[in-house]
Records
---
Amino acid sequence: MTNRAYVIAGSEATGGAGIQADLKAFQELGVYGVGTITCIVSFDPKNGWGHRFVPVDPGVITDQIEAATSCHDLDVVKIGMLGTPDTIDVVSEALQRQTWRHVVLDPVLICKGQEPGAALDTDKALTAQILPLATVITPNHFEARTLSGMESLETVDDLIEAARRIHELGPKHVVVKGGTELPGPDAVDVYFDGEEATVLSGPKIGEERVSGAGCTFAAAITAELAKGAAVGDAVRTAKTMVRGGIEQRLSTHAPFASVVPIAP
Ligand code: PXL
């Protein structure tokens, strides 16, 4: 296991999403994972599993990044949940201290249980400071609508148009995930590489939302890129992995199941 992959993301205390899912996916795909924690999310079982969110002190985030990047030669990084404008400031600054072969951005705007628009300043900072550094971005339906400025995404052509618009914001490779939100029997993703749009589709596995699927998808892309895969191939492997992970999902005492990252 000589390839190393890096993730800067939040901790999610149930183990289903966040950096816990990322590091499992890295391990499954045979890369050595290095992680920096930006924030701690603990769903509250006494309060409808609502979000409890604590940001890590920006200085401590900087220290973690310093330790990770000084200890290892890292050239592929996944960015997951950042959570506050202060965190975005320090992560953006740290990313610009070295060159990266790939920065994979999972633009986590809100998590399950959060109100849309709850964090508008964070969304704006992410778009202004992190998006231009990303080489690959993996927005879900909601994030694609927000980032593209499109009112609704109902068809595959809408997903393609959203991917084109997000591409114009900086990232060379855009994967828009239709997920369960797009009407129809299939889960459809669109991969746009700046020239060509490729539609990746497979039957939906129920309509239930599964925690950690998006995290695992971007983490799997990151791991494959760390091993030297081309972006299109990495995206296809990630889709297969998430599909298997949803099929084998873990039911929990929370109102959502957890994806189980398993190498395809
Ligand atoms: O699934 C998005 C996500 C990412 N990262 C963390 C989270 C969540 C959703 O709950 O808590 C830390």
Note: The first strand starts at residue 4 and ends at 12.
---
Amino acid sequence: MPDATYHFPPDFRWGVATASHQVEGGNTNNQWWAWEQQPGRIAQGHRSGRACDWWTNAEADFDRAAAMNLRTLRLSIEWSRVETKPGIIDTAALDRYRQMLRGLRERDIEPMVTLHHFSDPLWLAESGGWTNPDVVAHFARYVKQVVSALVDDVTLWCTINEPNVYATSGYILGDFPPGMHDLGTAARVLRHMLRAHTAAYRAIHEIQPGAQVGLAHNMRFFDPARPRRLLDRAAAMVQDLWFNRTTLAAVGGTHRLPWWLPPVGFGPALATRNTLDWIGLNYYTRDRVAFDRSARDTAYGIRLHSDDAEPMDGNYGELYPEGLFRAIKRLSRLNLPIHITENGIPDSDDDQRPRALILHLHQVWRALQDNCPVKSYYHWTLVDNFEWAEGWTLPFGLIQLDHATQARRPRPSADLYSAIARSYAITPELIDAYGPELRKELLPG
Ligand code: FCB
């Protein structure tokens, strides 16, 4: 009988990912906090509030991560805490981050630090945020402060999380602040984010030549709902162009843009090329896109639900593990080390997550067999956290959180992930225990 264990390389890193505003609590000085106070913005009127209380006690969750055999953890620095007013740096906030990072290292957990993860200081938002070209210089100045302060404790930096999601949700779909619906402005925001990434990349390397700097790209697939229809294919292509190709072309160079793409204007002139030491992949789902003449807001492409697709909880989209393999293959064209900086599923009762975790990691394993340079996997996320416009309604945690009492309860998936991280393998025993229905697919013979 063939060995039915899926082994991962011994230097593969298992981790979890989070973001400051989603876990720290009390981030009153950013645009998300202000947004949460406006009626109708967040599902069920939820607010981040104390979140997971990390500003006071992230260390208790670091203990949990260490006990789960995790060797890396991705967190973000909250710009609004560090630079409270333009040019005014709060050194006590930097000290607290240093303490957290040292706490990770003491537990043998390597930190990955994101410098921007959706939240902006209020002063920045009030001056036009990422629509204002000054943001590039502001961001570079902030990054220099952070990197100089934390240079002894971090080498793995992620400049910006998901420029495409920030631009799309804030400026096209309008479900993130500032709630706009304007493609041209969205393109401007994306352009500024990519320029800011470039400036940050250079600034970090000046301070720390050995730094490993990347950005986290949210790769979502847009497949035609009815592949034989030309207009569905065209609509899907336009979505892909905006969401994936612009960013990858700008920073990676190998994803060519068609010459006719007008207002976005990314290209060699942007000088973003060669500004990545690695690429981060955030993968969740795919859309099946159909052409719809009335859907101006989404460039005439709407999502269709497909009957043969298993939906994730909370209307989060199709459970589509194979997309992770496709995404890794696509990013491999950049010839850079790949960190899977996010992947997970909202699932309160954990009836889907164990199976989903096994299936997604199986796709990572497949990509590794194909010699794709995947170095690590960060599950989103350790503990249920404040899920932006969805508030507390989408529980992504391996550990369940009651955010009123701060009580935590590990879900079965936490044990599963911990066992995989301990053995660097998905074993038949784990498949039997956590996803017996996968036997046929994963344990042939
Ligand atoms: C990603 C975000 C992350 C989290 C997950 C579920 O797009 O980067 O903060 O909200 O989705």
Note: The pocket of beta-D-fucopyranose is lined by residues 19, 22, 161-162, 165, 218, 282, 342, 380, 387-388, 396 (CB under 6 Å).
